[in-house]
Amino acid sequence: MAVTVETLEKLERKITLTLPVGAIQSEVDSRLRKLARTVKMDGFRPGKVPMNVVAQRYGYSVHYEVMNDKVGEAFAVAANEAKLRVAGQPKITETDASVDGQMAFDAVFEVFPEVKISDLATAEVEKISTEVTDAAIDKTIEILRKQRRTFSQRAQDLAAQETDRVTVDFEGKTDGEPFAGGKADDFQFIVGDGQMLKEFEDAVRGMKFGESKTFQLAFPADYHGKDVAGKTADFMVTLKKIEAAHLPEVDAALAKALGIADATVEGLRNDIRKNLEREVKYRLLSRNKQSVMDALVSKAELELPRSSVQAEVDRMIEGARADLKQRGIKDADKAPIPDDMFRPQAERRVRLGLVVAELVRSNALQAKPEQLKAHIEELAASYEKPAEVVRWYYSDNRRMAEVEAIVIENNVTDFVLSKATVTAKVVTFDELMGQN
């Protein structure tokens, strides 16, 4: 087999392959003979179908199969001999150069690029940190109390106020006409919880049992109900019930209800602190990892294989369609989603993947068995039966691959932070958790 390698442009290469016609035909004949021993056809006993009949019926498909196999094998051998790192699938076409019992093919493909990473000491990374304060624990306890609040009916002469649960009938109209979702009977919501638009809550706050009121409500331009988005509606609301909220006391009974092993107030606070510190650790790691990856990409020079980018775009489109299908969108698998919607993100993912792979290769940052074990044990620690969770991870290669990818990213993050110019920044707990 003669092999030539030609550089086209940037990462694109071409290999010319030649295959002997005789070897292809020999393999076709061999597969047809094997097929003839088991094929069933009307008018013939199994295994007794004449070869010419088998060849007439199955010859084309078997020939196509053999050609694919042989050309694929030849390409793999040629690429390996030329020490080429092939990106994506080659495009193979037969050429007019087929002579003297030889068939010739051109395989056009891309190779992975050379990745150049400049001095990481010049990279600037902002590394954030925070601590779990008593105020954060207090806020979490209040959330837990709200989740377990109870309600009792208020006296009929009292007005609705913050934290009350109210039951109302309402109807809204735009330009004098009702609209979809603008009418409800016996509708419940809690004043101040943000379930309703502010104008609606403001109208109900201060109303008494049996009272009715009309008011105007301006829907935001980005309101999810497109029929009324950006419009002003006239509402009539009638208050039918007011219930006061009662939050459980912060005591041993609450700790016990929450399943805290040490059912005391101190035990509750310690458990909350431990859980918050775990969440803070992962959020800090995620934010700092993102900063590191941004810095790493900025210090790298490389060409992107178009085939790799397109494959990533295709994966993202399929993911988007699967998400639409899960939401119940009809014919989601046929939804027209343009490539351009995901191309910038796909390019970043491919770029980052290639840069990280180069850094891992050149600095021996692969995940070590003890790192995988430690990470899995840490993930399992928050579960009731950690040993079962550990076995669950180790029993599935796909899950282990996901853990390995995370550990490698952590190794890369630590490596870059050890080399880069790092600026420390303390953020509040609420800033990190995305709270107001």
By secondary-structure content and strand pairing, the structural class works out as alpha+beta
Q: Can you tell me the CATH superfamily of the largest domain?
A: Trigger factor, C-terminal domain
End-to-end gap: 69 Å
Q: Which term fits the overall shape? A: extended
**In percent terms, what proportion of residues is strand?**
15-25%
Query: Which spans of ≥5 residues are poorly predicted at pLDDT below 50?
Result: none
Domain module count: 3
Number of strands: 13
CATH topology (level 3) name of the largest domain:
Trigger factor, domain 2
Write down the Rg. 33 Å
Instruction: Give the averaged pLDDT, no decimals.
Output: 89
Helix % is 40-55%
Please count the helical segments: 12
What summary fits the major beta sheet?
5 strands, antiparallel
The H-and-E topology, N to C, reads as EEHHEEEEHEEEHEEHHEHHHHHEH
Q: What is the annotated CATH architecture of the largest domain?
A: Orthogonal Bundle
Which CATH first-tier class of the largest domain would you pick?
Mainly Alpha
